[in-house]
Design brief:
This protein is of the alpha+beta class. It has a single domain, classed as Gcn5-related N-acetyltransferase (GNAT) (Aminopeptidase, 3-Layer(aba) Sandwich), CATH 3.40.630.30. The protein contains five helices and eight strands; from the N terminus they run ββααβββαβαββα. It has an eight-stranded mixed beta sheet with strand order 1-2-3-4-5-6-8-7, with helices on both faces. α1 crosses α2.
Length: 189
């Protein structure tokens, strides 16, 4: 079992489990069509966000591979909820995880998603001692490409027209980082 100490602190963010009081702040951006352009999901109604929060609230630990840890990102100085992120424990045998994130576009361009991605990498490599962590995204999602690259991940695969999403074929990019790459990056400071 792996349960981080909450909140997970970064320079400007506090990552914590979902809570019932998060519905309004999450709905503020989960309702926006532009958030879902490169995702499998569609804009969410308030009722859908309430159900999402109810499903995710209270989950604070990973007890076995195949589980997901969903966290919200609050600004440390104001407490404003600015995004949410997920850590997938993909395999215990192969020591693999995956990260994902969605941030309110009102807080875009500040490096907050990168900060959250780095915190998730730290959680996987230092907290869980995983060997490899990936990030999968639609190749057209240039902003997310930049997040993963700034977090230190490298492009590992470009899968051409491998998924049929929202009525069209799309390319998928796979970014990855190995534990030794994380450690080397940390040693450089």
């Amino acid at each position: 079992m792996f349960e981080p100490e909450y909140p997970i602190r970064t320079e400007r963010l506090l990552l914590r489990p979902f809570a019932p009081g998060d519905v309004d702040a999450l709905h503020a951006y989960h309702r926006l069509p532009e958030i879902h352009t490169y995702l499998y999901s569609e804009p969410r109604s308030r009722a859908e966000v309430e159900a999402l929060v109810a499903e995710r609230a209270g989950t604070t630990a990973l007890t076995e591979a195949g589980q997901e840890l969903h966290l919200v990102a609050d600004l440390a100085d104001t407490g404003a909820l600015v995004g949410d992120c997920v850590f997938f424990w993909r395999s215990q045998e192969h020591q693999q995880g995956e990260i994902g994130y969605i941030f309110n576009p009102a807080y875009g361009g500040r490096g907050l998603a990168t900060e959250a991605a780095v915190a998730l990498l730290r959680l996987g490599f230092e907290g869980m001692r995983l060997h490899r962590i990936t990030g999968h995204l639609d190749a057209r999602n240039i902003a997310s490409v930049r997040v993963l690259e700034r977090a230190g991940m490298r492009l590992e695969a470009h899968l051409v027209e491998n998924e049929f999403v929202k009525g069209e074929w799309s390319d998928e990019l796979v970014y990855a980082m190995l534990c030794r790459e994380w450690e080397a990056r940390q040693a450089r400071g």
